[in-house]
Structure formats: structure tokens, C-alpha cells
Amino acid sequence: MCLIVFDWQPDAYASGGARPLLTLSANRDEFFRRDTDSLAWWPDAPNVLAGRDLTGGGTWLGVTRDGRFAALTNYRAPSEVRPDAPTRGALVSDFLADAPVPPLDYLRRVAREGHRYNGFNLLVGDFTRRELGWYGNRADAPPSLLEPGVHGLSNSLLNTPWPKLVAQREALCDLIHADEQPSLDVLIETLRDPRIANDDLLPSTGISVERERVLSAAFIETPEYGTRSTTALRVRQFDDGLTVEIKERSDDDGSHRVVRPGAFERSHAFDVAR
Predict the structure, then answer these.
(1) Domain with 188 in it: what CATH number?
(2) In what order do the strands lie in the sheet with 120-126?
(3) Pfam families under this entry (predicted)?
(4) Sheet containing 241-250: which strands, arranged edge to edge?
(5) Hey, CA dihedral for 207, 208, 209, 211, is it positive or negative?
(6) Domain count, the chain
(7) How is 21-71 classified by DSSP, letter by letter?
(8) pLDDT score at 70
(9) Residue 128: which of 103, 94, 110, 97 has the closest Cα?
């Protein structure tokens, strides 16, 4: 997962507003050769709804029937990558599949072992607690719960102003200003933006300018690597509980074969179990 923008409003319903608790859209960028299961309920962990990385195990984004959420982006630092490091996708799946713990407790546990992993950003949340936390193992800051507002993650630390993050965060603000509950289709379409940033705005992460240029698009397209799926998620509160809506558009028809451009969709909606 390489780009996530989200609006977090834990007190919106309590204050009488119609704004959802969470509105999120995310792109997963990955090598096309890496086998993946698309968004589905896991047979071996029936509480978990997520895609699945069949090469490394784990997942990049998912939710649970009892209202928990987790997502991950990699931190781009090619000179620091260790091939023997444990898979980062397990940080997401472990939070979702294991017994519930408060988000900050889980992130603090991860932080104690953070040095073992290649660079990552991890979001974990519990909607019933109205808590969403972040930890980056390349940050000089401990795990923390997030303040309300519109945030973004790419392949650097939280809200680092890379061009595509700034553009997509602003686009999400505009969508919510026009409609507090934009459709999941609109969220997906907005994030599938192939425009390249100007060279003077590119970050310097240890790769060539040509590669930085390609990766500066929200929707990445190269012969071997690109945006494999886009996910939109909304969590709303009602008098009697919470409702989760999630939709994924991917390039996989279920056979693990890549078909570009991705147009295969899966969607789910469910009430959070009390």
C-alpha cells in the first residue's frame, strides 16, 4: 500500500454532524508478478475482510466484523532494505486476526520490535473506541493516536508533503466540502490519477529522477510495477451502531492474472458486531 488519504472525525456524530467517522481511499502499489487474493472474508479468520498477499503473507488493508481497521504503507529507503527482514504485511493481519487490543497498545508493542522490519507506516484503529493510531518505524516519535482531520500517508512519514499526497489530500477535502458522504466510486476514481509531478517537486529518496517521476503519480503504471488496487472505505454511526462500507477495484479477476487497466470490483457493507 503506497498512498492513503483519509478524513478522521471521531466526534462528528456526537456533535450532531452527518460526517462519517472515517472516509478513506487507498492505492496499493506492487509488482505485478506478486500473487494476491482480492478483498474477501478470510476462511481461516472469518472476522477479517481484506485482500491477501500470497507471497509474503499478511495484507495491506483490512477491517473486521467488530469494527477494527488496519493499513500499511512501505517507507521508501532503498539503501536500508534488508532482504531477510520479516514481512510487514503481518503487522496488519496480526492486529485484525488476533484478539482485540487497544490501538495504542498494539502500536507500542510493534514499536518495541520495529527495528526488525524494513521501513513502514502502520495505521490501526478501533471504531467502537473512536481511536485511530499511527506508528512509523523511521520516525523520531512514539506511536500516537491521531487528531481529527484529513491526513495522508505515502512512502514517507505521516503527512509528508509529497506532491501526490498533497494533491489527493486536497482532493478529498474538496469532495467532502461538496458532499459529506461522497460515493465510494467517486473516492476510487479520484485516487486513480495518473498525472506526474513536476521535477522540482519530486522527493529525493535514493532512486533515479526517472523513477521518482514515475512514482510521483497517485496511480502508477509501468510494465512490471504499478497500482494493483484502489480501495474506498466509509464508516458511519447511527443511533444503534456503526456501518462499514468498503469497495475495491483491482486488476485481478480472481485468477491472480493481471489485467490492465483494473476494472474488477468487490464491495461489502455490514453493521459492526456489538
Answers:
(1) 3.60.60.10
(2) 36-42, 45-53, 61-64, 68-74, 120-126, 131-136, 144-145
(3) TANGO2
(4) 149-153, 3-8, 22-31, 225-238, 241-250, 264-271
(5) negative
(6) 1
(7) SEEEEEEEEEETTS-EEEEEEETTEEEEEEEEETTT-S-SEEEETTSEEEE
(8) 98
(9) 103
Cα 126 off chain centre by: 15
Cell numbers at 71, concatenated? 493499513
pTM value? 0.96
- Whether the Cβ atoms of residue 37 and residue 182 lie closer than 8 Å to each other: no
Cα–Cα distance between 74 and 225 in angstroms, integer?
A: 15
Q: What is the pLDDT of residues 183-240, one digit of tens each?
A: 999 999 999 999 999 999 999 999 999 999 999 999 999 989 999 999 999 999 987 7
- For 111, phi then psi, to 5°, come to -60, -30
The gap from C-alpha 64 to its chain's centroid, in whole angstroms, comes to 15
Range of the domain at 104: 3-271
Q: Residue 242: which pLDDT band, with cuts at 50, 70 and 90?
A: very high
Closest CA to 261 of 215, 210, 231, 227: 227
